[in-house]
From TrEMBL:
InterPro entries: 5-3_exonucl_a-hlix_arch_N, 5-3_exonuclease, 5-3_exonuclease_C_sf, DNA_polI_H3TH, FEN, HhH2, PIN-like_dom_sf. SUPFAM superfamilies: 5' to 3' exonuclease, C-terminal subdomain, PIN domain-like. This is 5'-3' exonuclease domain-containing protein. It comes from the Bacteria. It comes from Parahalioglobus pacificus. It holds the Pfam family 5_3_exonuc_N.
């Protein structure tokens, strides 16, 4: 949408407005004092996947000054709200989220991942886990994920390995699309099982089975590389369970003053004030 709000210095604020509004919607739906964390990407070109494959996310451009300002502002708002925030040069936001999900699940919590990114669907490991796209009012569990992709969440990294991911510049296996990848994983369950039985691919009831078997044999080294790129890292050091969301009166005043100084509309600021008081 066109830029509508700007700081006094001329920086756009549309992304900040949308982020704050989404946070308020989320807090309103999940109730007071939730365990809530946010992760931000600060690793474009520097994360460990670039050491494995230099072409990873090579088509992405670094954010320009205006977008960089808004990303930093979104993190400032999150921290002012008392939300635990994670980012770093070696790991992606997805890896921090995967680690948080693992820690939370180990402590007996249901995990809800709020994102539009399908890659994070691989975190749906328990029946109570949810992948929540607030913008589409869509909440997906393991079975709904299977209905959508034809594979289980724990198979999804292998699925992405086979089909590739143009958004992240992950090479797939030529000629293997979503349907073929789902068929392979329904039959073999994992790439580990497939590795010792590639010859059997030619006999599967799928289009181009013989050619797929040949391309898998010839490109298996790249398959193993792509698998490392597609798999989320769930043991990032320094990540711990977030505290329950809470904000003091001083924090609230500081946050609303910041939003006003940026030039965000008073209606949004009133929503922030009301939402933070409701969580007391």
């Amino acid at each position: 949408m066109p830029d509508r709000w700007f700081t006094p210095q001329g920086m756009p604020l549309n992304a900040v407005y949308g982020y704050v509004a989404t946070l308020l919607d989320l807090i309103a739906q999940i109730g007071p004092q939730p365990l809530l964390a946010a992760a931000f990407d600060e690793s474009l070109g520097t994360n460990f996947r670039n050491e494995i494959y230099p072409g990873y996310k090579a088509s992405r451009e670094l954010p320009d000054e205006a977008l960089a300002f808004q990303l930093k502002a979104c993190r400032q708002v999150s921290e002012d709200l008392g939300i635990s925030c994670y980012a770093g040069p070696r790991y992606e936001a997805d890896d921090y989220i995967a680690t948080l999900a693992t820690i939370g699940r180990e402590q007996g919590y249901a995990v809800t991942v709020v994102t539009r990114d399908k890659d994070l669907g691989q975190l749906l490991r328990k029946p109570q886990d949810r992948w929540w796209d607030l913008s589409a009012s869509s909440e997906i569990d393991r079975h709904a994920f299977y209905e959508r992709f034809g594979v289980w969440p724990e198979q999804f990294a292998d699925y992405l390995t086979l089909v590739g991911d143009n958004v992240d510049d992950i090479p797939g296996v030529q000629g293997i699309g979503p349907k073929s990848a789902a068929t392979l994983l329904q039959h073999f369950e994992s790439l580990d099982a497939l590795a010792g039985a590639i010859d059997g691919v030619a006999d599967l009831p799928m289009r181009g089975a013989a050619g797929a078997a040949t391309r898998l044999q010839e490109g298996w080294e790249q398959v193993l590389v792509s698998r490392q790129l597609a798999t989320l890292h769930s043991e990032v050091e320094g990540v711990c369970m977030p505290d329950r969301l809470s904000i003091s009166e001083a924090q609230r005043d500081s946050l609303t003053s910041r939003l006003a100084a940026w030039g965000l509309p008073s209606a949004l600021i009133r929503r922030v004030h009301a939402a933070t008081r409701a969580g007391e």
